[in-house]
Amino acid sequence: MTCYDRRDLGLLLLRLGTGGVLAAHGTQKLFGWFGGHGLEGTGQFMESVGYAPGKASATAAGLAETGGGALLALGLATPAAGAAAAGAMAGAAAVHAPNGFFAQAGGYEYAATLGLAAVGLAITGPGRLSLDHALGHIFNRGWMVPAALAATAAGTAAVVGARTCRVRAKREGKQEALFEEVEEP
Predict the structure, then answer these.
(1) ∠ Cα 108 144 4 (to 5°)
(2) Is 7 exposed, middle or buried (0-12, 13-18, 19+ CB in 10 A)?
(3) Which residues form a coiled coil (predicted)?
(4) pLDDT in tens, 155-182
(5) Residue at 1 is within a domain
(6) Count of domains in the chain?
């Protein structure tokens, strides 16, 4: 195998793994598959963490994950697919950020990893073992990478910023404890 062949196989595996996980996550939100809560349950959760309206937020996140993940796996419209998936993961990371980095403590590790993989694929491209390559890269032009990433970054910043404002407003007037209370044995 030449290096070029190895690179294409590596990109295919990365696309299938990252895209498959993202698509599965999205179908949990949209359809309740794989133990998910569907639009109603996910919408209620989204509302509880500051994304409003909840059902619309769940739909947007589910579509970005399902669509972006499926397109990444196929290697089709790779810049837009990677950007959409990364935007959804940035929104998820914002929810988990107060818990620190590691997923075992509820942190943003998992969302960040998926988002970075999606951005990496958007920038690198899908390789020769892809629908983009088979179609002559009509949905994978060089100018599409910065355009997709910039549009997604602007939209994500607006959505996450609005969520941050809602979360702060909800906490206003509530005094947080200065010290943790420790129960005596």
Answers:
(1) 80
(2) middle
(3) none
(4) 999 999 999 999 998 888 665 565 676 7
(5) no
(6) 1
